[in-house]
Amino acid sequence: MAKITLDNLAHSYLPNPTKEDDFALKELNHDWVDGEAYALLGSSGCGKSTLLNIISGLLHPSQGRILFNDRDVTHAPTTQRNIAQVFQFPVVYDTMTVRDNLAFPMRNRGADAQYIKDRVQQIAAMIGMEAMLDKKARGLTADAKQKISLGRGMVREDVNALLFDEPLTVIDPHMKWELRTQLKSLHHEFGHTMIYVTHDQTEALTFADKVVVMYDGRVVQMGTPQELFETPQHTFVGYFIGSPGMNVLDAHVSGSTAVIAGHEIALGKGYGTPSGKVEVGVRPEFASLATGDTGLPVTIKRVEDVGRHKIVRADFHGSEINVIAAEGASISPDMNRIVFDPAGINIYNDSWRVAPEGV
């Protein structure tokens, strides 16, 4: 297990980068705590896999250092970093049995034969492949092969870190849930430092102690699922986390009041007079339909009943505002206003969250 330190780390795929936009991975300075489970979350091309490959040693950064337990491993090859990595698509030895595939990382390091046997049995049970241990990997389905890859990554107990690069892409949905549960159980049992790359917020939020949200090559927020939901530090976090994501509307803010397309709303707290691009962000859970003259005037476009609740899609001067209503809520045609709970309002200046005054 290892504390992982990213020190002034950045990477460009260009030979002579000269400006920030030339970097696929913008400058990072973070300490990732020994023994915690992290998820790198973001859309395709945001730098997740680049960062993971730098941590593993498959890629050398353009600048900065990476340290394991304060030891500089920036120039150390993968073999000297003592990590296990599982890739998006299965990497298995087709000519070997499932048992030999799982045993290979331990045999390669001279582990005791009885320990190998016991550990292989334990991991096979975890990935649901006990009955297939003596079958050759050749001819197995893609999801079965990926389970072998996952098992081989998890089989060693002495690694500094376990790295997963979108490992459940080829796994069927039910097995995804089971394997996520097993990975979390493994983490609780052995306390490995785990880093899990995904673009799926459900995977990230159910797996990780801390979620590292990446956007355009930089980390825009690192926090618990609750922190990401309640106080998104960047509008991308608000948009990307949640289903539907946060409503974001252009506004003029002065003190404890915001004006949105000529309509005034109370913010509950003071925010000064931010300049530049100012936006109000409110999650659908903190918006509600109303009648009368308060709130923002809207036209309801449709109501989607998703079982646990209803999602109301409304139009406000050409912008969509989403509202989450209770499953049993009555939605009438005269509900032509949306009001925001001040406790759920966030203010953003040039996409970054503004802290309320006095906080």
How would you summarize this macromolecular structure in one to three sentences?
By secondary structure, the protein is an alpha+beta fold.
**Weakly predicted, low-confidence segments:** none
What overall form do the CA principal axes indicate?
A: globular
Cα end-to-end separation: 36 Å
Largest sheet: 6 strands, mixed
Give an overview of the whole structure:
Strand 18 and strand 19 (309-316) form a beta hairpin. Helices cover 23% and strands 33% of the residues. The strands form 6 sheets. Strands 6-7-8-3-9-10 form a 6-stranded mixed beta sheet, with helices on both faces. Strands 2-1-4-5 form a 4-stranded antiparallel beta sheet, with helices on one face. The protein folds into 2 domains: 4-235, 3-Layer(aba) Sandwich (Rossmann fold), CATH 3.40.50.300; 243-354, Beta Barrel (OB fold (Dihydrolipoamide Acetyltransferase, E2P)). The radius of gyration is 24 Å and the shape is globular. By secondary structure, it is an alpha+beta fold. The protein has helices spanning 48-56, 98-107, 113-126, 142-154, 173-190, 201-207, 225-230, 235-240, and strands at residues 4-11, 25-32, 37-41, 63-68, 71-72, 83-86, 161-165, 193-198, 210-215, 218-223, 247-250, 252-254, 257-260, 263-266, 278-282, 287-290, 296-297, 299-305, 309-316, 319-326, 337-340, 345-349, 352-354.
